[in-house]
Amino acid sequence: MINTIRAEVITIGDEILFGQITDTNTQWIGTELTNIGIRTVRKSSVGDQADVILQVLHEAHQRADVIIITGGLGPTKDDITKKTLCTYFGVGMVRNETALALVTSFFEKRGREMTDLNRAQADLPANAVYMQNDWGTAPGMWFEYEGRVYVSLPGVPFEMKHLMTNRILPKLTQHFLTPIIKHKMIRTVGIGESFLAERIEAWEDALPEHIKLAYLPSFGGVRLRLTDTGTDLDQIDRELAEQVQLVMPMIEKNVFGFDDDELETVVGKLLKEKKLTLGIAESCTGGYVSAQITKVPGSSAYFWGSIVSYSNAVKVAQLGVQPETLEQVGAVSEETIRQMAEGVRKALGTNVGIATSGIAGPDGGTPDKPVGTIWIACATDQRTVTRLLKLGQYRDQNIQLTTTYLLNMLREEILLVKNEE
Fold this sequence. Notes:
Elements: E1 5-12, H1 14-17, H2 25-35, E2 38-46, H3 50-63, E3 66-70, H4 81-89, E4 93-95, H5 97-109, H6 116-119, E5 123-125, E6 129-131, E7 140-145, E8 148-153, H7 157-175, E9 180-189, H8 193-199, H9 201-205, E10 211-218, E11 221-230, H10 233-251, E12 255-258, H11 263-274, E13 278-282, H12 288-294, E14 303-308, H13 312-319, H14 323-329, H15 334-348, E15 352-358, E16 373-379, E17 384-390, H16 395-416
Parallel strand pairs: 1-2, 1-3, 3-8, 13-14, 13-15
Antiparallel strand pairs: 4-5, 6-7, 7-8, 9-11, 9-12, 10-11, 15-16, 16-17
Organism: Spirosoma validum
Protein name: CinA-like protein
Domain MoaB/Mog: 8-175
C-alpha cells in the first residue's frame, strides 16, 4: 500500500485577505509538493492575528503530515509568525548566531545601518532548525513536532521559492518516503463540461481505481486531468498513456493539446509548420486576439499585424468592407465578417486572415442582435468560414470566449491547409 504524505499550506498576512496582494505562493508550493509526491489537502489564508493562526495550526496538525507557512517574518511589529510559533510549540525565542551573521553581512554589503529590529530577525523559536535565506534577511525555519513537519518561510515569492527549491524540498524528500504523483492533462476546446462528461462516461467508469479524473473548465474549454500515483514512474507513464489512447477517439476533434499547451501556442506552432502568415481584423475584441497571439515568443515569424476596426469607417477604408453591406445588414453580420477576414488578408498580404465583429456589451444590443451576438471568420486561399456566436451579457467574458472560439477556428482551418512542397 502506498503511504500518502499530506500537506497543508498556510499563508499569513492581512494584505492577502484585504486583496491588496495576490497570493501566488500557494499555487506554486502545491505544484512543487506534487512533483515530489506530497499531496496538498488544504490551503488556508489567515490575517495577522495570533489566536486565528494558532487555531489554524491546531487544525492543520490533525489532517496533515507537512504544514508549510509563508509570511509574517519581517522586522515590524505586525509580523507575528515567530512569536506565534513560540506559543504554539511552547518554547522561548533564542538568537541564532548564524542567522545574525547573515543579517549583519546583508546590511554591511549595502552600506546600511542595522537596527535592533533587524537584529531581531535572527531570533528564532528555540526548537527551530535554521534554514538560510540567501536572498533576504527573513529566516526559513524547519520544525519537527509530534510526528509532523512544520516549515515557516518568508512571504516574498522569490525568497520563498529559493528556500523551497534549495533547502526545503530536498529535506522533505529525505525525511519522507514519498510516492510518485503524476498528472496528465488533456486540453479540450469547443465543448462544455456536461457534454464532455456524457461523451466519455463509459471510459471514465472503466478507469482503474488508482487513476483519478478531474474536470477543470475554463473559458471555451475543459482540461481533463488524469492523476496516477505509484512507485514506478515508467509504469505510471505507461498507464496514463494507455488511458489517453483509449479516450482520444471519443474527443479527438476537441483536443488541441496536452499538459501545458495553450491554444495560442499550438496555433503558432501550426502556422510555423505550414509556413503560413496571419493577419487579424478585430472589432468587438479590440485587440485582445492580437495580444494573445503575440504572447507567444517568436510570433513575429508568422504574425504580420492587425487592424482594430472599431468604427465602420475603418472597416471600409482599411479592410475593404462594402458600404452597402454595412447599410443593409450592419457591422454585426455574416456578410461583414466575411469581408473583414478576406480584407485583412488582402490588406496585409498574409496567407490567413481572421476577424471578429459583434456586440460585446454591456449595452448596444437590439431585439434582433442582443448583447453577446458575435460573428467570427477565418479566410485562407482555399475558403472562408464564418460562425455566429450567441454569448452572454458580460463584456470581458464575451471577449475572452470570442478569442478562444476564433483561435480554435483558426487551428481547425490551418490543419486543412496542405504543406508547401
